[in-house]
Amino acid sequence: MKVIKLAVLGAALAFLSVNAQAGDTYDAVKKNGFVQCGVNTGLPGFSLADSKGQWSGLDIDMCRSIAAMVFGDATKFKVTPLTTQQRFTALQSGEVDVLTRNTTVTMSRDTTLGLMGAGVNYYDSQGVLVKKSLGVKSATELGGASVCVLQGTTTELNLADWFRANKLDFKPVVINTSEEGFRTFEAGRCDVVTSDKSQLASLRASSATPTDYIILPENFSKEPLGPMVRQGDDEWYMVVRWALNAMIESEEYGITTKNVDEMTKSSNPNIQRILGVTGDMGKGLGLDKQWAYNIVKQVGNYGESFERNIGMGSALKLERGLNGQWKDGGVMYAYPIR
Fold first, then answer.
1. Cα 32 from Cα 87, distance rounded (Å)
2. pTM as predicted
3. Which of 165, 197, 221 finishes a domain?
4. I need a labelling partner for 237 at 20 to 30 A (CA). Which of 18, 42, 169, 171 fits?
5. pLDDT tens digits, one per residue of 93-135
6. Which of 192, 221, 250 is where one domain is finished?
7. Has residue 1 been placed in a domain?
8. Which helix (H) or strand (E) holds 87?
9. Which of 174, 163, 162, 170 lies closest to 144, judged by CA?
10. Is residue 274 part of a domain?
């Protein structure tokens, strides 16, 4: 989600503090023996804890990949559940090492918060969820509708912009959390609920009757979601960025959790470099040659993570779309490991 008013107490002092300590992040992570990830408090498919407290999801896999890369062990991580209002403050203050939480990378967040995006692990867009019984097939049919929307977010602004551009009226029903919005929507106090489409799919999947709802086709915005780090620690930024790139490029070359050991025998020079058979691509970051091998072996490539967490084999049943490989019509295009 996309908060405008962050309400960060002492923002100027926090920014200076961030700059003073950010360069120590990578060293601190190695000293602590684990990576501390800031995650959503509970978003099915992206970050959710089960009854035993075990976390899973696309964003959790991002965190696990960083752990596998740095420590050779994907279990060397801890999570800090963060609300939309808490997430940036927690990263700025050093409470977490990286934000692996459904967070949109924007120019203002890169230039005013002392933070920066390290890549995109899910290309999303804002949309609307309606009940099938409403009989609506397009958002252009929603003139005069009441819409549940999070207050103080760019979601609210995108909604107003889209309806204004399409010369439609609407009545905003302001809510404080996505879960509250969905409950309000289910109770019939608003006709429509709007959010990132991935979040709408998660809310729908958590419903007792998910087939009663549809996400309309219109896209109100661009929402590139991905991990964020503090500015000032180039090494740590590169660790996070290349953990993501390794997952994406491994899928491109067909390297999976199941065949990764067999793939070490491949004659393809790209596969040899990725898996550390030739060259020493991790040396510049103080990593061993098997840093990418460890990611794929223990977590999987990007496609595997997508499919089990949010793809057609999951409860969310999201199609790859833009998140497909570039060769398949998507925009997932990794920097080359060479």
1. 21
2. 0.87
3. 221
4. 42
5. 999 999 999 898 989 899 999 999 999 999 999 999 999 999 9
6. 221
7. no
8. helix 87-93
9. 170
10. yes
